[in-house]
Amino acid sequence: MIQAIGLTSGTRKELPPAVDDVSFEAHAGRVTVLLGAPGAGKTTTLGLMLELQRGRGITYFRGRPLHRIPHPAREVGVLLGDVPGHPARTVRGHLRMLCAAAGVPGRRADEVLEAVGLVSLGDERLGTLSRGMDRRLGLACALLPDPHTLVLDDPARGLSVREARWLYGMLRAHADQGGTVLCTTADPKEAARVADRVVTLERGRLVADQEAADFSRTRLRPRVAVRSPHAARLAALLAQEARAAQRSVEVVREGGNRLCVYGSTCADVGETAFRNGIVVHQLADEVADMGPGAGATGRAADDKATPADGTGPGTGESAPSTTRLPSPTAGTPRHATADPRPFPATAPRQHPGVPADAQQQHPDVPAGAGTPMSVPPDRKAPEDSAAEDDRPTAGARSRRAGGTADAGDGLPPLIAVRPAPRPLRPLRYEIRRATGIRTGFLIGAGVLVVSALTAVLLARVGHTPQPRLLAAWPRELPLPPAALGAGLLGALAFGDEFRHPALAADRGTVPRRLGLLTAKLLVASVTALVLAVLTVGCDAEVLYLLYGREVVEVPADWIPLSAGWLGLVTGCACAGVLAAGVFRSTTAGLAAVVAVPLLVVPLVRKATETPSVRTPALVSRPSRDGLPLRWPFGGEHHLDAVLRLVAQPVGGALTLSLAALLCAYLLTNLRSRVR
């Protein structure tokens, strides 16, 4: 069950808020539709409910606000737009990646593929999917953690009639299993066809909250559309016959030769035209939309300062220039008498605010204040069973007086933007993300080919030291191809996330979590190590085949050289990850890697070469001899080699750059949390 109370968006300078004091309920086992024209505030309402934007109000999902639910994705499945996955990733690979993020087994991907009918398209790329298949994939992503509640923003937009019918059938099946479904639409006929309850918004305010039957009776009226070159004469004849038969018939002139007849049928209108020799060009049954204010009574009617444009019976597919001939009698209702208000009539207009203890735990409610609901046991979480028994209704909560700071000013509590969720299995998620597309493999193959060709050219030219020859690192280049490739792979780790934000698709960003950063650094480092070893191995094999054994002899100091080579490639990969995470761009991440030898190294070299700077010995022999404890297996020699490596200009510049980027990432993370 969803309970939205006093949802109000932030002020927009001198404009009124996009959503103003919207309160409604969506019950389990039913499909609830938010209806409104474009700009009525439907998407903003969903954003406030899901705590994606600032405002006031509170929304309870089975008795708890979303920020108090440990894993929101397992409670609420969200579909707010197109699936923002990488276009080169397969459908099955995308779902398996999201399985790791949601902490569910990988086999769940095949289950939802079968549920939404995408088993045959599991190996298709996301970029090749049609609009209908993309919507099916979005629904599969929402169903992946098996949530109790589904929240969808205009899910049938742009779909064919067949695809829309299938989609709403899936939503109906989810509701029949005990789940809660809330979706938006701008088509009142579609809302009447698929919903159990319709909540109507206009200009950011709630104007009606009705059962589907009441909505169809008050908002939608059947009529007969007639086109005739003698429309005025036909209208007069229809009005005359209605008075004679004492029937309630209303004829509306919609400009030109078009008439709309309410309270009659095609047969009656056609017979009248035939008897009087009137030519008819069109005669068809239609369903007219009476406008958002139709049937609104009580609070919903009081909230409307002025009636909506075109709330009369003439509103429909075109804006009419109405000429009403006979007035309707009591037999043709203009407005419904059912009370469309979502809460009891005693609920006050102003919300006194929700007390602080209601946000921390489930408040106790007297008997009769709540509306208990029965949810099947297989869809009810154990920790929520007690909460649903004593859950208060929205009206009861709005009547409670709180002792908080917000209670004094008579406003609902503030809505803070909920941080993006972290992946529950970040390492598995990052591995599936990196291996799910061909980009990384293509970059690695390109690096190996370029390195081998560069090594052959350097060997042919001559005068190149053997370490640079094996690393394919000419003196003219700031970095070897392997280091540049590792930096590019590291930059793609975050760059692709920001370009195709699959983790936080509802907000278009990437969660800044240390667990995700650690997983990306670990995967990028391992990839860089593999790339460094393969580069040296391929270069040595090619040089051996072309120039013989003497070119690839193992040098005496191969251990420090290997450590320096692996450290350089790994450091470039980590620098790419951190820079792309800070600047949110793959290009910026690669630029930061290239800037290390071009900008940072000269500054470090200049700083170390000044006369005032004295570089002491890293680990001198007297110091090592005076230590009370000795390092096992000659560890002091290895430590000395590492420190000497860091003391070199390139090593020092890379270490300094990594430290600066890590601090910048942590500061941006802290700033986003403070906001």
TrEMBL record:
Domain ABC transporter: from-to ranges: 2-228
The keyword Chaperone appears for this protein: no
Transmembrane residue ranges: 440-459, 521-546, 558-580, 587-604, 646-667
Lineage: superkingdom: Bacteria
SMART domains cross-referenced by the UniProt entry: AAA
Pfam families, sorted: ABC_tran (PF00005)
Region (Disordered): 290-417
Iron among keywords: no
GO terms, molecular function: ATP binding
Keywords: ATP-binding, Membrane, Nucleotide-binding, Transmembrane, Transmembrane helix, Transport
InterPro entries: AAA+_ATPase (IPR003593), ABC_transporter-like_ATP-bd (IPR003439), P-loop_NTPase (IPR027417)
Bias-annotated ranges (Polar residues): 318-330
Biased composition (Basic and acidic residues): 377-392
Biased composition (Low complexity): 393-417
Family the entry assigns: Belongs to the ABC transporter superfamily.
Protein name: ATP-binding cassette domain-containing protein
Species per Swiss-Prot/TrEMBL record: Streptomyces griseoloalbus
